[in-house]
Amino acid sequence: MPYDVDKRPGTWVSRQATKRRYRVLVFTALLLAGSCVGLILKFSHHPRLAIAASALSLVFALVVWRRLDRKTREAVNWLRGARAEEAIGDLLNELRGEGFIVMHDIPQEFEGNVDHLISGPTGVFMIESKARGYQAEALGKAKRQARKLHDELDNWVVPVICIHNRDRKPFRHEKVWVVPEQHLLNWIRAQHERPVPFERLARYADSVPSA
Q1: How far apart are CA 186 and CA 44, in angstroms?
Q2: Is the overall model pTM greater than 0.85, yes or no?
Q3: Residue 26 and residue 3: Cα distance in Å, rounded?
Q4: Which of 211, 152, 151 is nearest to 2 (CA)?
Q5: Which of the residue ranges 11-15, 40-44, 66-70 would you say has the lowest mean pLDDT?
Q6: Which residues contact 60 (CB under 8 A, 6 or more apart)?
Q7: Helix, strand, coil percent content, the chain, rounded in steps of 5
Q8: Residues 173-201: pLDDT tens digits?
């Protein structure tokens, strides 16, 4: 099935956030279950068993609590990422009325997905969404994703990282443009890169799986 042009932005990352919320619930249930068992054994009529149960219950609770804390932070980060990607995607959809093709959540082998692909009169742009900032590996990923799209489209693709919550002018970092959300549309409109022929982009869209 070809790519769905009406696909909502943030679909893939929202699924990842949901999976991590389920993991938080599982570890919360384990923590509660372990605490209940420990309390039951603590009040046992066998003193040695009660002491051993208390010690084991404490160790179990510490181990599960650490995992729960880590999983909770992961889930929160993925949820923030999903909200940022949805907001940036909805903003980019405004370009459709200006002759731009806007695609979201494009599967890419070994890279998860491309958040947004924008093609129009000012060029072709691969946009990676970030909630608040980015780490060094995000620059490498953006360049790899843009390079793969270049090979598919036979056209220069500009790698971009868009920050949802950031108040700064656009700048380049290791050949990747970093553009805050509030500047994104005007920045795209002001570029002068080579556009890709519509027929070539259409063939590419037909080759992209819908999920």
Answers
A1: 70
A2: no
A3: 35
A4: 211
A5: 40-44
A6: 34, 38
A7: 55, 20, 25
A8: 999 999 999 999 999 999 999 999 888 88
Catalogue the E-assigned strands of 28-98.
none
Q: What is the mean pLDDT of residues 89-114?
A: 89
DSSP H helices in 93-196:
136-153, 181-189
Average pLDDT, the chain: 80
Q: Of 148, 149, 151, 171, which is closest to residue 161 (Cα–Cα)?
A: 171
Neighbouring-strand partners of residue 180: 163
Tell me the β-bridge partners of 173: 176
Amino acid at 180: P
Q: Where are the domains of the chain?
A: 11-87, 96-207
Extract the tokens encoding 110.
Answer: 């070994």
Fold of 96-207: Trna Endonuclease; Chain: A, domain 1 (3.40.1350)
Owner of token pair 């160790």 = 59
